[in-house]
């Protein structure tokens, strides 16, 4: 199977996914194998939400929309153009996936297969319904993928390299366990936003998407704000308010109530608006329904701080702070070439 075949297969997968990325699921006449897969995937979306309450239909479809937009001939060709992928000697690459947001491990899955390797996937129990079904579709549109894709719930064995994502604790275990294998090991990271006080209402509304999408569970979600000394949060809270229906989701509301009670009993200072709290804190990882903030008075000192602590930061959302910054509202819309932890997984796969 050559690179063109692999790309075309994922383009067809993108076409299939596109049917499920709108408010109304809509079956298209020109999508291959719809008679076999369309209704089944609708059922998988339902199962995914029933099994994991954080995976609402809205959030699943948002994730699918992102992938349907990425899996185009134009985007795949642009992504892969810098690499030499036609003479890869196929190896078996194990992927240990997280399960915090829908299809969070799909980029690794795509990278392994598009580069010409075989994949062995160990999924999180929180996200086990969507990817195996999409893998079956991929095998239907390109028969040569059969035998190259395997899933396991057991201990992974007989592999040549590994890409593993987990918490800081599990990452230490991964580093020890896989010390004799080529590996990419990812641990906890969080995203931050740098506010200068000159943001428009539109900027702040866009920022709310970075904060609340997926309930803040992704590493690309903003969990920490840096604001100038004396910053007035009124405009910020006003821009967040259109997300207030989020409190109607029981799992989110339970976390909001619990964390609010902890802060009140501990007599911590915090501001809240009935569905969301902000608390001054030096940590990067904030609990659900909470955003941490920290004041700064010297932008250059803040630049130095973010460089020193870069291994804790996934994305920086700002205007004019950093050359690698992400615009407000775009953290959950990464491009194929936006690698997690800035580790080029395709380059890694080509070196094995």
Folded structure, characterized:
The structure is a single chain. The chain is α/β, with parallel strands linked by helices and 352 residues long. It has 2 domains: 3-188, Aldehyde Dehydrogenase, Chain A, domain 1, CATH 3.40.605; 190-317, Aldehyde Dehydrogenase, Chain A, domain 2. The protein has 12 helices and 11 strands. It has a 6-stranded mixed sheet. It starts with a helix and ends with a helix. 34% of the residues are buried. The model has no long low-confidence stretch (mean pLDDT 96).
Question: How are the SSEs ordered, and which strands pair?
Answer:
Elements: H1 3-17, H2 34-51, H3 57-70, H4 73-80, E1 92-96, H5 106-114, E2 118-122, H6 130-141, E3 149-151, E4 161-165, H7 168-177, E5 183-186, E6 190-194, H8 201-212, E7 222-228, H9 234-240, H10 250-265, E8 271-272, E9 277-280, E10 290-296, H11 299-308, E11 313-317, H12 345-350
Parallel strand pairs: 1-2, 1-4, 2-3, 4-5, 6-7, 6-11, 7-10, 9-10
Antiparallel strand pairs: 8-9
């Amino acid at each position: 199977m050559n690179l063109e075949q692999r790309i075309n297969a994922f383009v067809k997968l993108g076409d299939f996914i596109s049917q499920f990325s709108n408010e109304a699921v809509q079956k298209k006449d020109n999508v291959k194998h719809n008679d076999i897969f369309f209704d089944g995937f609708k059922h998988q979306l339902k199962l995914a939400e029933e099994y994991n309450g954080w995976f609402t239909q809205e959030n699943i479809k948002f994730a699918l929309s992102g992938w349907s937009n990425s899996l185009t001939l134009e985007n795949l060709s642009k992504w892969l153009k810098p690499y030499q992928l036609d003479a890869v000697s196929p190896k078996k690459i194990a992927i240990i996936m997280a399960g915090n947001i829908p299809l969070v491990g799909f980029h690794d899955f795509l990278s392994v297969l598009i580069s010409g390797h075989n994949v062995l996937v160990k999924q999180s129990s929180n996200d086990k319904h969507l990817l195996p079904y999409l893998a079956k579709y991929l095998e239907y549109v390109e028969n040569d993928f059969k035998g190259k894709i395997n899933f396991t719930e057991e201990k992974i064995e007989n592999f040549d390299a590994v890409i593993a994502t987990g918490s800081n604790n599990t990452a230490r275990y991964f580093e020890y366990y896989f010390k004799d294998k080529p590996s990419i090991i990812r641990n906890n990271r969080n995203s931050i936003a740098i506010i200068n006080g000159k943001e428009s209402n539109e900027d702040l509304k866009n920022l709310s998407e970075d904060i609340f999408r997926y309930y803040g569970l992704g590493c690309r979600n903003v969990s920490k704000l840096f604001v100038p000394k004396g910053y007035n949060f009124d405009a910020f809270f006003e821009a967040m308010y259109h997300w207030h229906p989020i409190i109607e989701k029981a799992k989110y509301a339970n976390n909001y109530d619990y964390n609010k009670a902890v802060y009140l009993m501990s007599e911590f200072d915090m501001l809240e608006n009935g569905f969301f709290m902000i608390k001054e804190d030096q940590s990067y990882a904030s609990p659900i329904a909470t955003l941490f903030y920290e004041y700064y008075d010297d932008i250059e000192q803040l630049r130095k701080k973010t460089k020193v602590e870069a291994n804790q930061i996934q994305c920086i959302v700002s205007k004019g702070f950093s050359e690698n910054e992400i615009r407000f509202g775009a953290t959950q819309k990464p491009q194929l070439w936006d690698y997690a932890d800035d580790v080029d997984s395709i380059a890694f796969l080509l070196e094995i």
